[in-house]
Write a structure and sequence with these properties.
mainly alpha, 5 helices
């Protein structure tokens, strides 16, 4: 009976297979950062919902705080690990911040409308809105914020 190689060896084989296709490898890395970012943001969102009073506008405040926490995490990992950036800190940081603030405002408005205006469950609203925001985020980071000069 043939033994499977250890997990580290299997991961190394996957990395070697993907090394010839940097775009796919970069997108997979973005997904890993994105999933961890979503988890951190979602946890902060739920904690804020638990501690904030249940009133109109509180889901938007919870989203703003969650998005801010996720933005800090995302910048560090996307800049170095996903897009391999080492220079142009101020230029890329400014662009990254512009993308994140824009998407945060869009997500706050969309979640506010969904929850306070349409009566959507706050968790369902977050999942739906953040699915769209995630796609927009990758495209804007890839082609503008961290684009090669």
């Amino acid at each position: 009976m043939k033994r499977l190689p250890p997990a580290a060896s299997r991961l190394r084989h996957i990395r070697v297979a993907l090394s010839g296709n940097w775009s796919v490898y970069r997108f997979l890395r973005f997904l890993v950062v994105g999933l961890s970012n979503a988890l951190i943001s979602f946890i902060v969102y739920l904690v804020m919902l638990a501690f904030l009073p249940q009133a109109v506008g509180m889901t938007s405040l919870a989203q703003a705080m969650a998005y801010g926490a996720g933005t800090c995490w995302s910048y560090a990992w996307n800049r170095k690990w996903v897009f391999g950036s080492r220079d142009r800190v101020i230029e890329e940081g400014s662009r990254f911040l512009a993308v994140q603030v824009s998407l945060m405002l869009i997500s706050i408005a969309a979640i506010g409308v969904a929850v306070d205006g349409l009566g959507t469950d706050p968790v369902l609203a977050w999942v739906m809105v953040m699915a769209v925001i995630t796609i927009l985020n990758f495209l804007l980071l890839r082609w503008w914020a961290f684009a090669s000069p």
